[in-house]
Write a structure and sequence with these properties.
2 copies of one chain form a homodimer. Chain A is an alpha+beta fold and 200 residues long. In chain A, 55% of the residues lie in helices and 9% in strands. Chain A has a single domain (5-197), classed as Glutaredoxin. In chain A, strands 2-1-3-4 form a 4-stranded mixed sheet. In chain A, a hairpin with a 2-residue loop joins strand 3 (174-177) and strand 4. The radius of gyration of chain A is 16 Å and the shape is globular. The two termini of chain A are 22 Å apart. Chain A binds chain B through residues 47-51, 56-59, 61-62, 65-66, 69, 72-73, 165, 168-171, 181, 183-184, 186-187, 189-190, 193, 200, and chain B through 47-51, 56-59, 61-62, 65-66, 69, 72-73, 165, 168-171, 181, 183-184, 186-187, 189-190, 193, 200.
Amino acid sequence: MPAPLDFYFDFSSPYGYLASCRIDDLAARHGRKVNWRPFLLGVAFKLTGATPLTSQGPKGDYALHDFARTARRLGVPFTMPDGFPFATVAAARAFYWLLDRDEDAAHALARALFDAAFVRGLNIGPADTVIQIARDQGIDGDELRAALQDAGVKQRLRDQIELIISYGVFGSPYIIVDGEPFWGVDRLPHIDQWLSEGGW
Amino acid sequence: MPAPLDFYFDFSSPYGYLASCRIDDLAARHGRKVNWRPFLLGVAFKLTGATPLTSQGPKGDYALHDFARTARRLGVPFTMPDGFPFATVAAARAFYWLLDRDEDAAHALARALFDAAFVRGLNIGPADTVIQIARDQGIDGDELRAALQDAGVKQRLRDQIELIISYGVFGSPYIIVDGEPFWGVDRLPHIDQWLSEGGW
């Protein structure tokens, strides 16, 4: 089986959410799987000097318009969540803690977190909210609550982010296909073409 | 005849050049014309706090890779010009001076300037280079040389940029279709769909 696609995103990224709605189906059409790999965009922003998109004056206004327009074009539901942009460290720690035990469950939790934020409009920053969403997925909430404060789990996320940034990832979504990097949900058709043609 | 598309760009913008290769044909398929309207990205960057793409660490490396890859995908020639990013005030002044006399000639000069920069790889910053490119288009070089230093021509560009920025334009290319804004060469297929469907 050919190598999986690597899908890097931040749980507070609207374009990351939009890509998450389509990336698995796109990959499956080419017999590929997807490794979902959340990171913290704030850490990458420190390296590039970037600031959150929606805080950039007219660019922010455009982005808010474009999030909703892109969602309509893709045919997926979209709501701007409360408290945007929220911290995603609890969501990301929960993801990697679960990934090391059950990859499918971790991917399902990631989908549920994105859904809570960008369909139901919740602020998924607080640990309690992440734990409640995990419980709804059948995950032991008490175990997860302990994990979110565990030094090893915290270090696991720091190491993972360092690794992701070492690959040159600076934005969300960022998708690597057989070593080829693609940034942005608007690159999904390019990825589709790349997988069909093996590059161009 | 339906309203023309407004195409805003900076002459030093690789994605602006790439859009310029396709925008007229795209519009023509829908019975539309295109108003080419250069501006100075540096003025917009002061408002958004943005910096040139290629100076943004890993994002800059990605951009350099993506310029060439996008050009191959579109099937257009592409070279990174000498001295990039160069000043484009002379090119933009020349454009508007000519636009007020002969719109078709101004559009042809814009294409020739982009071609000089991104196909032949020239630094089109210096006034002498702009004048030589204009001469090759049959424009009177001495008249243009005087115009580039004329207070009225300088003010014409300043007023034009102020107007463009008042529309919310913050990047290049930025295309407005019947009031709907699209930023980036990767939005050309969206514009095509918007023109076909009248929105979505």
